[in-house]
Amino acid sequence: MNEQYKKIAILGGGNMGIALAKGMVASGKYRAEDITLTRRNTRLLEPMVEQGYRASSNNALAVSEADIVVLSILPQQLDSVLDNISESIDPSRHLFISIVTGVAVTDIITRLGKVVEVVRAMPNTAIAIRESMTCITSKNASPENIKLVKEIFSAVGETVEIEEELMSSATALVACGIAFFLRSIRAAAQGGTEIGFHAGDALRMAAQTAKGAASLLLHFGSHPENEIDKVTSPKGCTIAGLNEMEHNGFSSAMIKGIKTSANKAEKLYTDEK
Ligand SMILES: NC(=O)C1=CN([C@@H]2O[C@H](COP(=O)(O)OP(=O)(O)OC[C@H]3O[C@@H](n4cnc5c(N)ncnc54)[C@H](OP(=O)(O)O)[C@@H]3O)[C@@H](O)[C@H]2O)C=CC1
Ligand SMILES: O=C(O)[C@@H]1CCC=N1
Q: Does the keyword Oxidoreductase apply (predicted)?
């Protein structure tokens, strides 16, 4: 399938559905008029319609008009949506992309009762500014369709192909991870305010510093400790602050949080049944 001018139905025009649609169009490779977003409350999609996207509350119709179907509803909303669109699916035409947390390729095929090609993708909200880290996997899609999905997500950030068994881990690290890093930036800004900066200045300084730290790793391909060693002067203030944070469980809290999120992601869909 050539991605150019393919019709795309994004079922679930919420946070991620909208962010994906905007990122795809911002990449210059997709046209807003080829993307239909669905949700029950379509009034909330009016700003997208004003920007040229199509909006609908009719999932089955959106699917019947599309080549690529993106599932972007919550895990607990998935079964009713799949039941609703099942009749409209043509397995020889439709390619499914699912970003739904905790739902396996086989879960989707079993519920649909049709063997469609499904690629799972786990992006994050930075997709809106084309800075996502997206993990991709498929058990049954053709190499051409996996390539096509990679191209879609490469247009909105970085991609990596992983085994499906690691998708819940990927959810914790890259999708929930946005919230984890944002909370650490907020904590840094709060510390900055306590030591003398106005809140807005402290937040801007903390965010740019976090961006610089991440960019150092990506630019040099180095390990965090190599970069940390360049900051920590002997008997200096950095190592004093760093050790105080570690005494209070900084790394441990992040590791435990990521493990808890991965366990929860694994059960999000099955616990609903
Ligand atoms: N948020 C994130 O950072 C990430 C989320 N994910 C996954 O992506 C999926 C979407 O998450 P997110 O965008 O945050 O969730 P949202 O709740 O923002 O979006 C879900 C959307 O689905 C719509 N919806 C619900 N039922 C139906 C239906 N029957 N037909 C059509 N649309 C429907 C809702 O609108 P309405 O109520 O009007 O119908 C809502 O807009 C989830 O599975 C989540 O696990 C994956 C990676 C990152
Ligand atoms: O919190 C959640 O369940 C979703 C999945 C990953 C990010 N947000």
A: yes
Nearest CA to ligand 2 atom 5: 101
Q: Which of 18, 38, 39, 156 to mutate to test the pocket of ligand 1 (most atoms within 8 A of CB)?
A: 39
CATH code of domain 8-162: 3.40.50.720
How many Å lie between the centroid of ligand 2 and the Cα of residue 76? 12
For the stretch 38-84, pLDDT in tens is 999 999 999 999 999 999 999 999 999 999 999 999 999 999 999 99
CATH superfamily of 170-266: ProC C-terminal domain-like (1.10.3730.10)
Q: Best mutation site among 48, 72, 120 for ligand 1, i.e. most ligand atoms within 8 A of its Cβ?
A: 72
Q: For the chain, what are the domain ranges?
A: 8-162, 170-266
Q: Is 257 exposed, middle or buried (0-12, 13-18, 19+ CB in 10 A)?
A: middle
157 is known to lie in a ligand binding site? no
145 is in an annotated binding site: no
173 annotated as belonging to a binding site for a ligand: no
